Amino acid sequence: MIFEYNEERVLQSSIDIDDIGNIAIEGTNDDGYYYYLIIVTVLGETSIYTFGPLLPDLVELIEGYTFNFFSLDYKETKIEKIITRWLNDNKKLTSAKIIDKQSAIDSLPDLEDIIQ
């Protein structure tokens, strides 16, 4: 029986971000799930929002849906790590694009429609 080892991970895509302190990214995977990352920096305080997975045109939340928020003092290296981790975690994103912040906010599910 042969066992393979020494896995090599090859990144296949990239995204160019001009202002990492103020950005919204929409990521998708091959299963059709959408994920969002919003970063807003005001007066040296950075707020980071992540949410997903979502399926377009589906009112219900998908099992595993999360919404996370945290803030930190602006530090470029920390924000770079956060973006890299978000792009490369277990969501298995195959596409990521920069969108305007309002479009990302508009993608948030309306809890009034969900909680009955």
Task: Describe the model.
This protein has helices spanning 76-88, 101-106, 111-114, and strands at 23-29, 34-42, 45-54, 66-73, 93-99. It has 116 residues and is of the alpha+beta class. The chain has one domain (23-105). It is globular. The termini are far apart.
Mean pLDDT: 92
Task: Provide a count of the helices.
Answer: 3
Task: Quote the beta fraction.
Answer: 35-45%
Question: Biggest β-sheet, characterized?
Answer: 5 strands, antiparallel
Number of strands: 5
Q: Please state the CA-atom Rg, rounded to the nearest Å.
A: 16 Å
Q: Give, in order, the helices and strands.
A: EEEEHEHH
Estimate the global geometry from the Cα principal axes.
globular
The strand line-up of the biggest sheet is: 4-3-2-1-5
Helix content range of the residues, please?
10-25%
Alpha-beta content class: alpha+beta
Question: How many structural units, i.e. domains?
Answer: 1
What low-confidence regions span 5 or more consecutive residues with pLDDT below 50?
none
Distance between the termini: 55 Å
